[in-house]
UniProtKB/TrEMBL annotation:
Name of the protein described by the UniProt record: SIS domain-containing protein
Species for this entry: Cereibacter changlensis
Domain of life: Bacteria
Any GO molecular function: glutamine-fructose-6-phosphate transaminase (isomerizing) activity
Keywords, ordered alphabetically: Aminotransferase, Transferase
Keyword Transferase attributed: yes
Signal peptide: none
Example GO biological process: UDP-N-acetylglucosamine metabolic process
A Pfam family matched in the record: SIS
Residues in SIS domain copies: 50-190
């Protein structure tokens, strides 16, 4: 068996493969969920020495490069780094990078590559391309034996599942962003924030269980909806787009139209009328007023406005500073419960339905 890269870390918290029906509803394994989140937080808390090492080696900028849902989940971290300044950062799509690489993607750059499986063709083509250019690579993956984990310069492995992928990537990239900001002197509270994160997994289990009745009711209401507009702003926009693309479209085969709350009034508002379903995600950051504006408008014109607000989720003892950083994690966790119920209900409806022959690639 090939060895992992010299700089690699494997979460020692294995994830069970069974998907049982626990206290929080269909498909929810609280023990597995806790292991994935603690694994992600442990990795996040251990990234500072690596960041220091990379800066000593001349790394002066970072690119977060991925495909599909994994790429979207890096956006809150890249946005945090951009707003703080001090360390140039860019978010890129893997397939486009190999065709039209951005300026600065060379020997002084770090490429962060999130991929749950570590085997996607686009990801491996990207890795080969980056190696040829001398770019230092950091893989965030769920499979220790995958080509990505084995061939990247540095690898962090957290054995997540598709249901826990969002929290895993969001927390690891948040930890990396905090480490970069700390090492460049932009913040002085990275360590206390990482320590505070240790309380999050248990609190999120309780939050998911508290949301379970609402998730079941909402799923029953939305079961036959053919189309949704999904919107949000700030750090939760990435979760809104991920929910539309990865959950509604890919997982549930439901049409969606993700639109940023700042762009809602530049096209999407013309589609809003009674009967049009709108998912609105609200975070606890500076962009919240953009979502508030959409809510005030949509409430007047459709009877199907569904609001999920991170500020209304009880997470006792967490500081406002941390809550503002983890809104995407909170909402992704609750949306997973909604999707589990929707999947179960729609499966019973479509079990005997004829297939179109279309194949998800």
């Amino acid at each position: 068996m090939s060895a992992l890269p010299a700089s690699s870390a494997l979460s020692t918290l294995p994830v069970p493969t069974a998907r049982d029906e626990g206290a929080a509803g269909p498909g929810f394994d609280s023990a597995g969920f806790l292991r994935v989140l603690h694994g992600a937080i442990d990795i996040a808390g251990g990234l500072r020495p690596l960041v220091r090492q990379l800066r000593d080696q001349g790394i002066s900028r970072a690119f977060f490069i991925g495909s599909g849902g994994e790429q979207l989940l890096t956006l809150p971290a890249t946005d945090l780094l951009r707003r703080a300044g001090g360390f140039p950062v860019e978010a890129c799509l893997a397939a486009q990078v190999v065709l039209a690489p951005p300026t600065g993607l060379g020997r002084s750059a770090l490429a962060v590559i999130p991929s749950l499986s570590g085997i996607a063709p686009e990801t491996l083509a990207l890795l080969a391309f980056l190696k040829a250019r001398g770019v230092t690579t950091l893989a965030l993956t769920g499979e220790a034996g995958s080509p990505l984990a084995l061939q990247a310069d540095h690898a962090r492995i957290n054995p997540a599942t598709p249901e826990t992928l969002a929290e895993s990537v969001l927390l690891q990239t948040l930890g990396l962003a905090l480490a970069l900001l700390a090492e460049t002197g932009r913040i002085d509270d990275a360590d206390p924030l990482t320590e505070e994160l240790q309380r999050l997994p248990a609190l999120l289990v309780a939050a998911k269980q508290a949301y379970e009745p609402e998730a079941a009711r909402r799923a029953a209401t939305l079961r036959d909806e053919p189309y949704h507009i999904v919107t949000g702003a700030g750090s939760v926009w990435a979760v809104a787009e991920h929910f539309g693309m990865r959950q509604l479209e890919q997982r549930l085969r439901v049409r969606s139209r993700p639109v940023h709350a700042a762009d809602f009034f530049h096209g999407a508002l013309e589609l809003v009328e009674p009967g049009v379903s709108i998912f609105l995600l609200k975070g606890e950051d500076a962009a919240r007023p953009l979502s508030d504006r959409v809510e005030r408008f949509a409430y007047r014109y459709t009877d199907k406005l569904w609001v999920l607000d991170a500020a209304r989720v009880e997470l006792p003892g967490l500081s406002p500073r941390l809550r503002g950083l983890i809104s995407p994690v909170i909402l992704a966790s609750l949306l997973e419960r909604l999707c589990a119920h929707l999947e179960a209900l729609r499966a019973t409806r479509t079990t005997n339905a004829p297939t179109t022959g279309a194949k998800n690639t």
